[in-house]
Amino acid sequence: MKPLVELGQDDPHQPIARFGMRSFDRQWIFVDPRLAKTESPSLWASVSAEQVFLTTMTTTSLGRGQAATVTTAVPDKHHFRGSYGGKDIIPLYRDAMLTPNCDPKALALLNVVYQQADAGASAVTIERLFAYCFGVLAGTDYTDRFHEALETPGPRIPLTADPDLFHRMASHGEKLIWLQTFGERFGSRKSPAAGVKWKTQPTRLPEGAAELDFDPTTETLRVADGVLTGVSDSVWQFEVSGMDVVRKWLGYRMEKPAGRAASSTSPLDQIRPTTWLPEWSTELVEVVTAIKESLAMIPDGIALLEEIVSGPLIDGDELPVAPEALRKPPSVKAGKSGELELYGEDE
Questions:
Q1: Cβ-count burial 12-48 (b if 16+ within 10 Å, e if not)
Q2: Residue 187 belongs to some domain of the structure
Q3: Which of 59, 104, 113 is closest to 81 using CA atoms?
Q4: Please, which residues bridge with residue 20 across strands?
Q5: Does 210 fall in a domain?
Q6: pLDDT band of 33, cuts 50, 70, 90
Q7: Residue pLDDT, tens place only, 55-86
Q8: pLDDT given for residue 39 in this prediction
Q9: Which residue range forms the structural domain that includes residue 231?
Q10: pLDDT-derived band at 345, boundaries 50, 70, 90
Q11: What is the pLDDT of residue 336?
């Protein structure tokens, strides 16, 4: 690719695409390795209209709240520790050709177990297994229930031997994925509004945190000169590993920088938005709705997880050991145009 210093004003730029800045926060980025080093080129190469990325903590103890989040955009920042680049990411598919990110032998074993228990059991696909895992991690009291065990880093999934319980939890997880990808995956309908709406939309950016005000008694959130209704206290307090999701989302959309950027001496951190974009009004409703509806599902998820852990489980030793090649991301090389191209393990 031509060095940036040699680019002319009229030269074409690389594509601008969504990326997962933090949990529930979609922002925009130039897909250009000359501007920023991406942690995982293979993730960008695996993007498709069907891909879903699950993020969690695999080497550090999980905090309170959901033990995993999902996004359809490449997570280029760590969704549980913003100080890191995109790590601890488990894609649904290994590539843009929708190769399942799972050992085929494991799926085959699950199907055998469930068919033996119930000859009429539905097939276990990679999508159902992915949804089951997300349902356990994000749609229950997982981090509270297993807080002592989770002092040893890395999420572990209690895998039921009951096909009915498996598919009930998979359906639970599918709805959560649909909600938390804002209706883009695992569903055919647009995500609900859930009574969340603007009384008056903002016409300007909040200057700082002082222009954000939440009233739990009226369930209203003031954003500069705008007022959003239908925001419950549980949504306002919702966090992922100690990060207040709604407050963090708004913090990126203020005149004054927040967090580490507030004390940064880098001129890049002083580049701020100057106007409130109408699309942000729509997105904030989507974020609040996704959290509100997800929280409403937690009691059912808790009861379902109780059934799972009280019943027969598939021991981890019964599952096949995944081949080393499947534990590594696919190799990626840059083509002549600078676009990322995916190669097989033997290339």
A1: eebeeeebbbbbbbbeebebeeeeeebbbbbbbbbbe
A2: no
A3: 59
A4: 26, 75
A5: yes
A6: confident
A7: 998 888 888 889 999 999 998 777 777 666 66
A8: 53
A9: 197-261+272-296
A10: very low
A11: 45
More confident position, 242 or 99: 99
Residue 215 lies in a domain: yes
Per-residue CA distances from 261 to 67, 167, 224, 272 (Å): 27, 44, 21, 10
Tokens (6 digits) for 83: 């100080």
Q: Tens of pLDDT along 277-313?
A: 999 999 999 999 999 999 999 999 999 999 999 999 9
Sheet architecture: strand order including 25-30: 25-30, 16-22, 74-75
The answer to whether residue 74 is domain-embedded is no
**Would you state the structure tokens that stand for residue 227, as one six-digit string?**
């007022």
Q: Phi, psi (5° rounding) for residue 17?
A: -135, 160
Secondary structure (H, E, C), the chain: CCCHHHCCCCCCCCCEEEEEEECCEEEEEECCCCCCCCCCHHHHHCCCCCCCEEECCCCCCCCCECCCEEECCEECECCCCCCCECCCEEECECCCCCCECCCHHHHHHHHHHHHHHCCCCCCCCHHHHHHHHHHHHHCCCHHHHCCCHHHCCCCCCCCECCHHHHHHHHHHHHHHHHHHCCCCCCCCCCCCCCCCEEEECCCCCCCCHHHEEEECCCCEEEECCEEEECCCHHHHHCEECCEEHHHHHHHCCCCCCCHHHHHCCCHHHHCCCCCCCHHHHHHHHHHHHHHHHHHHHHHHHHHHHHHHHHCCECCHHHCCCCCHHHHCCCEEEECCCCCEEEECCCC
Total structural domains within the chain: 1
Residue 314: how many other CB atoms lie within 10 Å:
18
Residue with tokens 């926060």: 25
pLDDT tens-digit readout, 201-219:
999 999 989 999 999 999 9
Q: Is 241 left (phi over 0), alpha (psi -120 to 50) or beta?
A: left
